[in-house]
Every structure is written in C-alpha cells, then in structure tokens.
C-alpha cells in the first residue's frame, strides 16, 4: 500500500479478529485439537480477546488524543493548559454609566459597587467626576445576563459624598449599553484559542504575543473574540490591534466599544515596551446578501403557489438592478416598494394576498407581511393585513432593504441552535475577520498584513461563493442554493493605515426562488 | 526445508531442497478434563488429566450454565432456566434443552445421543443422565449430574 494511502489513524483489531488469531495460533500448536465454538480453546480465546479490547480502546483513544481537534473535557485541558493556561472563567459585562453629582463633583473609587437589575457592578477607576460625566464600570456578577441596554437605571450601593444615588447606563457608539458579559469558556472556544497559540506561538513581543495579551480575558476582563494585529503597519516596531468581540448573540454586533478597546489596549501596552502597540478602530461594513434557493423535501416551501417577488425571468437583467427594494417605510404595515433601477418593464407587480418576507437583523430572523392592498403601478404603495396575525406588526422595513417571498422555513427563534439557513449564514459571519489596512504590500511576507493571515477557514475576510453556498446548505432542508448578491468573491474594503479596519457585518438578507 | 549456501561451502545462491525426515507417528492432542466443582481443569502433580476434545465439549456444554462465561455466552446449558419441575413435562423439557446445548455436536455430527433421563429425586433437585456415543472414538459415555436449588 502506498504510504500516502494510509488512513492516518491508529488501526486496531476487533474482538472477533483477536479471538480468531488466538485460535489460529492454537491450531498451529495443536493441529489435532478442535477450536470450534464450545470448546476450551474457544472459551479461552474469547476471554483473552475481551481482555485485550480495553487496551486497544485506550490505544485508539491515546492516538486520537494526539490531535487537539479530537479531544474534549479534562483531556483537552491537560493538553492545552501548559500552553495557554486554564480555561477562561465567566466574565461580567463592561461599559460605563453617566452619573449625577453636586457642584464640585464627586470622588468615585475603584471598586465602588452599583446595582443594575439586581446584578452587581463596580467602578474601574478612582477619579474625580463632574455631573454628567461617564464612569467606566465592569460586572462583579458574570454571564450574558449582565449585558444591559443603554439607558437602564443603575443605583450606587453606597453613594460617595456629592454623588447622586441613581445613574443610567451610557450609550456606546453602536447604541449598546453594557456588553461583553459571557459564560465560562466552552471546550470549542478553548480549543480554538489553543490552536491559535500553536499556529502562532507568542513570545518576545512578536505580534502573536500582542494578540495573546489582547485575547487574555482573564487579565483585562473584556470579552474579546479575537484580536488581529497589523505588524509594522506604520514602520518597524509599530503594531496596530483591531479587536473583534464575541457578540451577545448570533447576529449581534461584534464591533468593540471605545471603552472596551481602551481597556484592552491599556492592558497590552502595559505589558510591552512603550509606543510599540496602538489601537485601530474596527468599523462595521454592512453587507446585503441575496440567495436563490430551492427548499428541500423536509422543509416547508414557498407559501404562495406563485411566489412574489420572483427572480427576473430575463437572464440578461441583473438582479442587482431589478431587485425589489423598499423605497419608503412609514410604519411596520405601510411601505412603498420599487425596483432598484426604477424600470418596471416585464416586472410582475405585487398583488393583495401575497405573503412577503423581510429580514429583521435585530432578532436574526425573517418576519412575514401579508399584502392587503397595492396602490400604483410602480412604485407600489403597500398596506398589510393584520387580522389573524397575518402580518408581523413590530418590524419596520429599512429603506433599500430587499424583499423575499415568504416561506415558513425562513422563520426561526433567535435563540434556537437548530440547523437553519439563517443561523448557518449568521454563524459564517460570526467567524469573519477584519480586512486589510493597506492596498499594496512591500513583499509576500507578513509586514502590514493582517495577522493571523486570512484564509477560507481561518478568519476569512473575503466572501466567497464556495463558503456562502456551504453555509446556506443543509441536508434535506435546502435542495439547492445559489448566492447572487453581492458579486462574489467580495473582499472586505481596505481600511485606513494604522487607524481603521473594516469588518463585514450582515445588514440584510433575501431569498428568491430558483 | 532448504539448505542455503551463504558462500564458500557451495555455490552462492544455490538453494537445494533437503531430503524430508521420516514422518513421525502423532497421537491426537488431549484436551484437559473440566472439573465443575473447582471450576478448573482436573489433574495432579502439575499435569492435567486428558480426554478427547468431543467429550470436553460435552462436559462444557452440560456443566457450564449458558451465559455464565461472559466472553462466550453461547457456551452451556439452560437447565437452570426451567421455571417449574413438573413431573409430566420435565422429561420433554430436559431433552429439548440438552439437545440445544449439544446442538453443534449433534449437527456435525460428532456424537450420537443414546438416551436422556430426567428425574426429580427430591424437591428442588433435578437429576439428569445423558448417555452418548463419541462417533470419533466410538466410545459410549454416561454423563450424570444433579442440578440443585430449583424452586
């Protein structure tokens, strides 16, 4: 057998084979004796074979345990803890509160406790604050429940002199409040971090060490999903860090707040020589996806016999030009639809009774609207039916958003972990990395390139047809799927040297029939 | 068997086949005798008593309870699974179970059953006597055993 055809796993025998080997040897020694079932040699061979099996099982287990991708639990901990330490514990959310204070301000001390929705938080800096200033805080309690919306009321447990007892959670740049609280690290997350350390061993102040420091949540307390570095981005010895957060739930923003970036970079720079490392902003770059899809035999299909909108019948017409989009949206039930290129020749108009779908990014699902009446010949003013829950009344479509025909296969619970075409696409987006900061590089080396380097499996920053098709394909639920928008491959736009990295984030999704 | 010349004594690479030795008269290997009281093989002075392998198969089939050897659960009899020692049905029941335990030997065939006798001498005891002929040795053996602890 050629050596490259070997299976790559430890080959072990089976219990029956082991018994037969014993009997064969026995027969060689005692050719006139019987090794048929029921005799003493047979019983002995069977017993010995049973005794051998745990050894083979252990050997196979140990062979598999050479590969960290195959092990879990205590074995994973034993393998990775010498390299990256123990698993990270649960972390409380971080952010800031806006306080009220009397004239002259109030001295807040590091560790001063606040209560928000019966959960405990503490101030992270000792400083004199004036009324209306923001005070950075972090959770004493841990877990995702410590994430709080902006504007939530907070209360000091023991207000300092001059400090108003109540305050509110400050709104961050992206509109969120306290973020980053999560449960203890799972096996999968721990394994990913360990593999990262194996692929890019940190040490001696190299960029891998910068990333390892930035990702060490146990030290800085910020739920960084992954830190990306741009070595030598502004010349020798300069390294920019762009952070990507875990996100509170699938589909949630992964952009760090300025407080989170400041906390992490302050920790990292404290561990390294001065001026070596600085923060780059990670900015969201919205993407709209459109797929053509054929539902499989185990999934509900399109609810209308003739779904609307359909894919343009004329193959020369680009879907990018003739997509049905929202022109104006006055409420969740009243909006105006149009074709993107304002050309209505050959385009079927919407009719009353058709059920259409919009992607609700905040809840990571599609919502259904049932058309009640249509005004105009294009653009079309659409009013939706509300009786018997025919239409969702909460979500107001965004201007420019694509319209899909409705299928029950599009609906999903935000927190469901079952295989779902929307969930799978979101999962793919949750593992994207930021783009580059410069257009051209000095050489094929690492200078100015994003680290870890992007690849289809390692924090990609290019949407590809292969990856999107794979993400949206589910056995028996999706029979066929073709990504048609944006034009693929779609690379993350280049940011600004040393200051900005863009991260692709899903803004809207649409599915059209094949 | 062959004799190779590595060089010097004969032409290198020449490998003449040697004459075979005289065939030895071989006696069949004996199988150790299973002794159910000690659950071991019988013998003394470090040597096991020997019997023909077919007789050993019969011993193991009728002494060992089926399923008690976990690695070879098919070996043994099911006589202890008789729920009730009914004098009317016991003979037929025991015959069925004995033939099932010896089925592999009967199908080949390497034994022939001459008689099976089942008795209930006292309450809770089953006495079984099997007379069979080993077709290889043409020897007739009387196997008798009392099975205790029936309800």
Can you put this structure into words, describing what you see?
The complex is a heterodimer of chains A (514) and B (151). Chain A has 514 residues and is of the alpha+beta class. Helix content of chain A is 22%, strand content 25%. Chain A has a six-stranded antiparallel beta barrel. The radius of gyration of chain A is 29 Å and the shape is globular. The two termini of chain A are 46 Å apart. In chain B, 19% of the residues lie in helices and 26% in strands. A three-stranded antiparallel sheet of chain B has the order 7-8-9. Chain B has a single domain, classed as Nuclear Transport Factor 2, Chain: A. Chain B is of the alpha+beta class and 151 residues long. Chain B contains three helices and nine strands, in the order E-E-E-E-E-E-H-H-H-E-E-E. The N and C termini of chain B lie far apart (64 Å). Chains A and B meet through helix 2 of A and strand 1 and helix 1 of B.
Unreliable stretches covering 5 or more consecutive residues of chain A: none
Largest sheet entry of chain A: 6 strands, antiparallel, barrel
Q: Give the radius of gyration of chain A.
A: 29 Å
**Quaternary organization:** heterodimer
Number of helices of chain A: 10
Average pLDDT of chain B, to the nearest integer? 84
Shape of chain A: globular
Instruction: Estimate the strand proportion of chain A.
Output: 25-35%
């Amino acid at each position: 057998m050629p050596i490259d055809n070997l299976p790559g796993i430890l080959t072990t025998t089976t219990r029956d084979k082991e018994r037969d080997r014993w009997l064969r040897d026995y027969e060689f020694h005692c050719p006139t004796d019987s090794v048929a079932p029921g005799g003493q040699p047979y019983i002995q061979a069977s017993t010995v074979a049973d005794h051998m099996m745990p050894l083979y099982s252990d050997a196979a287990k140990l062979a598999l345990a050479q590969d960290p991708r195959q092990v879990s639990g205590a074995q994973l901990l034993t393998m990775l803890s010498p390299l990256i330490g123990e698993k990270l514990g649960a972390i409380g959310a971080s952010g800031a509160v806006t306080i009220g204070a009397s004239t002259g301000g109030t001295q807040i001390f590091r560790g001063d406790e606040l209560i928000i929705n019966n959960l405990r938080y503490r101030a992270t800096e000792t400083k004199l604050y004036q009324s209306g200033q923001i005070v950075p805080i972090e959770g004493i309690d841990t877990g995702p429940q410590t994430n709080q919306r902006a504007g939530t009321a907070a209360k000091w447990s023991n207000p300092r002199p001059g400090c108003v007892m109540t305050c509110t959670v400050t709104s961050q740049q992206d509109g969120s409040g306290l973020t980053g609280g999560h449960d203890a690290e799972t096996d999968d997350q721990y394994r990913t971090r360990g593999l990262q350390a194996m692929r890019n061993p940190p040490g001696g102040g190299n960029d891998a060490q910068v990333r390892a420091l930035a990702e060490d949540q146990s030290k800085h307390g910020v739920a960084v999903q992954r830190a990306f570095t741009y070595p030598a981005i502004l010349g020798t010895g300069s390294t920019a860090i762009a952070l990507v957060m875990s996100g509170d739930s699938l589909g949630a923003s992964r952009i760090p707040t300025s407080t989170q970036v400041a906390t992490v970079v302050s920790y990292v720079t404290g561990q390294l020589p001065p001026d070596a490392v600085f923060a780059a902003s990670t900015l969201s770059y919205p993407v709209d996806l459109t797929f053509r899809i054929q539902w499989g035999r185990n999934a509900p299909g399109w609810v209308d016999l003739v779904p609307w909108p359909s894919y343009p019948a004329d193959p020369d017409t680009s879907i990018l030009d003739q997509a049905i989009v929202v022109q104006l949206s006055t409420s969740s039930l009243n909006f105006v639809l149009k074709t993107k290129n304002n050309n209505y020749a050959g385009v079927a108009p919407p009719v009353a009774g058709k059920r259409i779908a919009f992607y609700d990014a905040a809840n990571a699902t599609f919502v259904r609207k049932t058309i009640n009446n249509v005004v105009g010949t294009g653009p079309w003013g659409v009013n939706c039916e509300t009786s018997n829950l025919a239409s969702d009344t909460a979500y107001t479509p965004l201007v420019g958003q694509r319209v899909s025909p409705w299928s029950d296969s599009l609906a999903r619970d935000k927190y469901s972990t079952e295989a779902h075409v929307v969930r799978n696409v979101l999962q793919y987006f949750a593992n994207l990395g930021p783009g580059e900061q410069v257009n051209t590089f000095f050489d094929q080396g690492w200078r100015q390139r994003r680290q870890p380097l992007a690849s289809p499996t390692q924090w990609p920053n290019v949407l590809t047809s292969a990856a999107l098709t794979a993400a949206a394909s589910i056995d028996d639920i999706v029979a066929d799927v073709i990504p048609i928008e944006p034009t693929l491959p779609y690379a993350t736009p280049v940011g600004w040297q040393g200051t900005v990295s863009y991260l692709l984030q899903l803004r809207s999704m649409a599915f059209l029939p094949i | 068997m062959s004799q190779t010349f590595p060089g010097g004594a004969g032409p290198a690479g020449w490998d003449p086949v040697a004459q075979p030795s005289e065939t030895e008269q071989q006696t069949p290997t004996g199988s150790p005798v299973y002794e159910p009281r000690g659950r071991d093989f019988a013998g003394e002075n470090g040597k096991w008593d020997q019997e023909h392998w077919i007789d050993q198969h019969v011993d193991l089939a009728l002494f060992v309870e089926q399923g008690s050897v976990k690695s070879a659960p098919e070996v043994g009899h099911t006589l202890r699974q008789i729920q009730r020692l009914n004098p009317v049905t016991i003979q037929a029941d025991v015959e069925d179970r004995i033939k099932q335990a010896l089925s592999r030997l009967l199908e080949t065939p390497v034994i022939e059953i001459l008689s099976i006798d089942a008795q209930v001498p006292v309450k809770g005891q089953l006495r079984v006597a099997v007379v069979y002929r080993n077709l290889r040795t043409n020897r007739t053996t009387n196997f008798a055993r009392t099975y205790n602890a029936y309800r």
